[in-house]
Design a protein that fits this description.
Length: 728
């Protein structure tokens, strides 16, 4: 593992665990990409770049008509000097021109991984875990330095890339585009895998062949969004869970992003990813720097499961932070779908007390506890207790619940403000808005302007006051609308298009200060469920509410798609009442439990109104989850049956030592005279014997993996089984 520079050929070879990434300095200072893929011990240019005189591809070196940036695979292409493909960087000078000529200037290699200023990023706990290369490119006319940062990890087939812009010249520059990564593949024989969706239908899997031209995934909503996740992968046509090459990209950022794959005239593919240049610019004055977010790049030579395991391990161990990174997550009950806004102290206490009797460990008080919040028309921003609902105050309620030997959690939506609020009446300019334009609302609320330091400071103050007054150990941090009329009253006219990114920098500062100040609090990210399920948020909050849609059948696809990239330990999954409040479907409580137990388990219903039979089922589910929690939250996930392709789904979790496993199977729709079902398991040791507790049968691992196990005949729609395997 490591980074080497071969002076004779001016070649950089970056090696991770079982991955190589290679590029070369050409005459004239151009930086050419050579290879990314399975590890090679030594690179000797077997795939050296070939040149030809290509018509209509210009030549930066007049004496050589075979050399053109239009055909050269590059590491970080700019605009204006013969490359007609999408550039990674686009910068406007004071004279209005947008031509850049970036050439190699210098490089340095160091152990470890530097932090990114003001941005979330993966990290190392000691410098031997990774090596970092910085390549400095220089535009000699403007004295702009562009520093490309590459980090390779010792334990994983992963690397990260980001870019820093340093204006060492005398004039101001305007950054119009600043991608975090560019990779030029010398092939177009790929399919693009992505995770599109919608509110309550997040991260569904789509895959389609690349075609000539540009294919893109993006958000222009001010958040990473439900509609598209900041993830793409290029895969072989026949890639499966266990076979085929995968080249994956995931942006550690929670705002507007753009990922493109451009197939050119010679069947080469250029992939770029970073902040979305749409409605973005950044004024970079002389002496100033600008840092892009980080992209995590994962390579797999053995299909999607290996890719997922790399992302999961890296994010669990070197993206998530704090004491909860390595702790089991509590089983919770949330009152939202039980009461919505209509509750009082006694009702909340009764739900918590009933939950405790069922073995639940954490009660979460959701929206409606503050201001005059009886519906979603008011009070966001007024973070003080509604004494009509909680006449004894938040502290007394929390004290009563913690006396039950139960933890207490609280919902916030600190990035929003209601027009009907004391905060808005005092500071109407504190929201995102544009002068002389209407302020469009969504969910009857406006977005606070986190690009402003005074707004951020006030929110830190208000949230801290609540967290200090009561024994709160969990916070659900929600964000329930996207940006419109994007502008800031505090920014000058030539900086208005910085608002979206400055908002994210402000949000990250708020999260950094609060999570450091309250290390005993488990923060969970939420944005109408999974609208901001991205690595940037995981850096501050080690789990995310996966979707507002709690229907078990919908969650099959949502959780399956999310698992491609994000750790199971980061996914909140709850049992809710039926008919389901989002899709109005009725499913057995056993199925709801089996699906929800495949994440961070909890409940979202009124347990005080359930029958004695339902109480008993929940009590058994809670007790069962406590026996498998360490397997689900810390084990490796294997996807076995794809619900996007079939009317059923199956998956399993296996501990690191492969001594325990949990298998789940869900049948969606019944069928007349249906065939028998048998599923092959994964992740076991073939020579070990495993006892399946629910079947009272034992089998060797090779039999379970090569032959499979029979699924019992399940009658009707929406049926499931969940089995625990223990090594004998």
């Amino acid at each position: 593992m490591g980074i080497t520079f071969v002076e004779q050929t001016r070649t950089f070879h970056l090696q991770a665990n079982d991955m190589s990434y290679v590029f070369q300095l050409l005459d004239g200072g151009y930086v050419a990409h050579l290879y990314w893929g399975k590890k090679v011990n030594r690179y000797h240019h077997s795939n050296a770049i070939r040149y030809a005189d290509r018509g209509f591809s210009g030549n930066p070196i007049a004496s050589d008509r075979t050399f053109s940036l239009d055909t050269l695979p590059q590491e970080y292409p700019s605009f204006g000097h013969t490359d007609y493909r999408l550039p990674a960087v686009h910068i406007q000078l004071e004279n209005g021109s947008t031509v850049m000529d970036l050439r190699y200037h210098s490089h340095r290699i160091e152990k470890g991984k530097p932090q990114l200023n003001g941005l979330p990023a993966t990290y190392v706990e000691n410098e031997d875990e990774a090596e970092t290369l910085e390549i400095t490119l220089l535009d000699s006319l403007t004295q702009l330095r562009v520093v490309l940062t590459y980090t390779v990890f010792e334990k994983w087939n992963a690397m990260t890339r980001s870019v820093r812009f340093e204006n060492n010249g005398r004039e101001s520059l305007k950054i119009e585009k600043a991608a975090s990564v560019n990779v030029d593949f010398r092939s177009a024989n790929f399919e693009m895998l992505r995770l599109p969706g919608a509110h309550c239908r997040e991260r569904h899997i789509e895959q389609s062949p690349l075609h000539t031209g540009v294919q893109s995934v993006e958000s222009r909503r001010g958040a990473s969004s439900h509609q598209h996740n900041p993830f793409i992968a290029l895969v072989d046509e026949n890639t499966t869970e266990d076979t085929g090459e995968v080249f994956a990209f995931n942006l550690v950022y929670s705002g507007n992003f753009l990922a493109t794959a451009e197939v050119d005239q010679f069947s080469q593919t250029r992939v770029t990813m970073g902040i979305n240049p749409f409605d973005f610019s950044w004024l970079l004055q002389a002496g100033e720097n600008f840092q892009t977010p980080e992209v995590v790049m994962v390579y797999s030579s053995n299909g999607l499961t290996e890719m997922s395991h790399t992302f999961h391990r890296l994010y669990q161990q070197r993206l998530c932070r704090g004491v909860f990174r390595d702790l089991e997550r509590p089983i919770l009950i949330n009152n939202w779908e039980a009461t919505y806004f209509d509750f009082h102290e006694d009702k909340i206490y009764d739900i918590a007390k009933s939950g405790k009797e069922l073995g639940i460990e954490l009660f979460v008080l959701d929206d409606g506890w503050f201001g005059k919040r009886d519906d979603d028309n008011s009070s966001l921003g007024d973070w003080f207790v509604d004494e009509k609902k909680l006449p004894n105050g938040l502290e007394e309620l929390a004290r009563k619940i913690t006396k039950l030997d139960m933890q207490f959690g609280l919902w916030f939506e600190p990035e929003m403000v209601s027009e009907d609020s004391e905060l808005y009446r005092q500071h109407p300019d504190w929201c995102i808005h544009v002068p002389n334009r209407r302020r469009s609302k969504s969910r009857n609320q406006l977005v606070l302007d986190y690009s402003r330091h005074d707004v951020c400071n006030e929110m830190i103050k208000r949230i801290s006051a609540i967290l200090q007054q009561a024994p709160i150990t969990y916070v659900k941090w929600d964000m329930n609308r996207h940006m419109t009329e994007v502008g800031s009253a505090q920014l000058s006219k030539n900086r208005q298009r910085e608002t979206g990114h400055r908002y994210m920098l402000g949000l990250y500062r708020v999260l950094e200060e609060l999570t450091i100040a309250f290390p005993h609090v488990l923060f969970e990210s939420c944005s109408g469920g999974g609208g901001r399920f991205d690595p940037g948020m995981l850096y501050y909050m080690p789990q995310t509410w996966t979707s507002d849609n709690t229907d078990a059948i919908s969650r099959l696809k949502i959780q399956y798609g999310t698992s491609l990239v994000y750790p199971i330990r980061s996914m909140g999954a709850h049992v809710s009442a039926v008919p389901n409040h989002q899709v109005h479907r009725e499913t057995p409580i056993e199925v709801r439990g089996h699906v929800a137990m495949s994440g961070n388990f909890g409940y979202e219903l009124d347990v005080t109104t359930l029958s004695s039979e339902e109480h008993q089922v929940i009590k058994e589910q809670v007790a069962y989850y406590k026996t498998i929690r360490h397997i689900v939250q810390f084990g490796e996930m294997y996807r076995l049956v794809n619900p996007f392709k079939q009317q059923d789904a199956a998956w399993m979790f296996v501990t690191d030592d492969q001594s325990e496993a949990v298998f789940s199977y869900v049948k969606v729709l019944g069928e007349a005279n249906e065939p028998f079902k048998r599923i092959k398991l994964k992740g076991l040791i073939k020579t070990k014997k495993y006892h399946i507790i629910e079947l009272s049968e034992s089998y060797y691992g090779d039999e379970l993996m090569n032959i499979g196990v029979n699924i019992p005949q399940l009658t009707g729609d929406f049926q499931s089984v969940m089995w625990r395997l223990i090594e004998e």
